[in-house]
Amino acid sequence: MSEREFDLIVIGAGPVGENVADRAVQAGLTAVIVESELVGGECSYWACMPSKALLRSGAALRAARDVDGAKQAVTGDLDVAAVLRRRDSMTSNWNDAGQVSWLEGAGIELVRGHGRLTGEKTVRVTADDGTVTDLVARHAVAVCTGSAALLPGIPGLADIEPWTSREATAVQSIPGSLAILGVGVVGAEMATAFASLGAEVTIIARSGLLGGTEPFVGELVADSLRARGVTVKTGVDAMAARRDDAGRRVLELSDGTTVTADELLVATGRVPRTTDLGLETIGVEEGSWLDVDDTLLVRGFDWLYAVGDVNHRALLTHQGKYQARAAGDVIAARARGGEVDDRPWGAHVATADHDAVPQVTFTDPEVASVGLTAAAAAEKRGLNVKVLDYDLAHVAGSSEQSDAYVGKARAIVDLDRGVLVGATFVGPDIAELLHSATIAIVGEVPVKRLWHAVPSYPTVSEVWLRLLETLGRDSA
Ligand SMILES: Cc1cc2nc3c(=O)[nH]c(=O)nc-3n(C[C@H](O)[C@H](O)[C@H](O)COP(=O)(O)OP(=O)(O)OC[C@H]3O[C@@H](n4cnc5c(N)ncnc54)[C@H](O)[C@@H]3O)c2cc1C
Questions:
Q1: What is the DSSP string of 160-225?
Q2: 337-358: string of b/e by CB count within 10 Å (b at 16+)?
Q3: Which DSSP category does 376 fall into?
Q4: Could you give all domains of the chain from N- to C-terminal order, each with its CATH number?
Q5: pLDDT tens per residue, range 263-302
Q6: Which of 43, 56, 118, 277 for mutating ligand 1's site (highest number of atoms within 8 Å of CB)?
């Protein structure tokens, strides 16, 4: 056994842990990062990167098929083996050597193994070969252990070995048929990907698709999935699961019907990776999401931080990395007795987590949203809002882009402050439009000033002008 001391211990080398450590080291602290699986975390190997790789080829093919002149050049279907090869290269074949050398270059020490807190500012790491390393933090410990797939307690479900997002994103051969339980972002993206890769897909959801978004989002995505041959079953619960005689997965549904498929993907949510983390040694309930303040400090502690998925503020890589920049900087500032800027929108707080979280769902059409939905703004926040809707197919840029454009935009304006508080865009390749809305919301740009932000012609961004015209020049 060996014992080593650092200014900062980071548990979990996902995208978030890497960034917390990097910022702290850049500010002059020493940092060690503990990783039990692959450096790079869920995002690099079983989430963002492989899922987008599985989706991209199908999206490119459909884009070509939607443009006369180009569609005549498309004479075949996706080359599934090539798609999987591209996915393998995006995940570096599940080899983290590249990310390990990045850590080395950044001056961050790596200790491989499972980390557990053993008390205040102490962490014990047990490697696969049983080697134990005790780590002591002079200033802080940051828990960046992420989240894992939730398996609901449906009778028989665990016994039939369903897929989680890990098996889906790391798939080696496409099943003939795939049932997907739960249609949030993961379920909707995987339905899109596997349908394009030739599987017969059935999606099963308790309510609509992509809950928490504007209502038209789920409807447009469901219509598109149906048009691609996906069976969409909404308003049903899964009651029991079993295998049939052929070994196929069978789900019994609350409406009395069954769905049978070669594989079943469960995409019903996430749980925090906070079990077996030694939280009980510091009086925190294990298995819970870690509640933090805006500087990412776990409430009740002055040395324990929780950053990324594990704090449940926004389960997205970019938002976790944003938190990581604030956390790494504030840990260093506090360690050195420097000034802490924890005012809203200050350098050391993750203010945007509350009202300005951008998210893209890479379905076809894509869904890009930021800020509040109309319902959240009016009902939860009690804001005096105007909802601006526009059919994206009517913008010149969209008809240039595609002969079959389907899309919609919605902006939510807070009439009392005269600023945008939410925006949602649904349409092919709409993702890149989102950052304009994020900037308008975070910058609290007066809507009157947005009239002077002139969109280029003919681009889909012209929708900004159409939305402003819907509002009227003198309304806000
Ligand atoms: C299918 C899917 C697709 C997604 N697509 C996107 C996307 O396109 N864009 C996006 O922004 N987000 C996406 N997400 C979400 C994104 O993956 C997460 O928000 C992100 O990975 C969170 O980063 P993290 O560093 O907090 O956690 P993780 O990436 O989960 O990393 C945590 C790390 O901690 C390690 N660890 C855990 N416990 C211990 C321990 N006790 N000791 C040592 N190490 C430990 C784990 O092995 C892991 O490497 C997707 C998620 C899924 C499931």
A1: G--B-HHHHHT-SS--SEEEEE--SHHHHHHHHHHHHTT-EEEEEESSSSSTTS-HHHHHHHHHHH
A2: eeeeebeeeeebbbbbbebbbb
A3: I
A4: 2-40+96-148+272-352 (3.50.50.60), 158-269 (3.50.50.60), 365-471 (3.30.390.30)
A5: 999 999 999 999 999 999 999 999 999 999 999 999 999 9
A6: 43
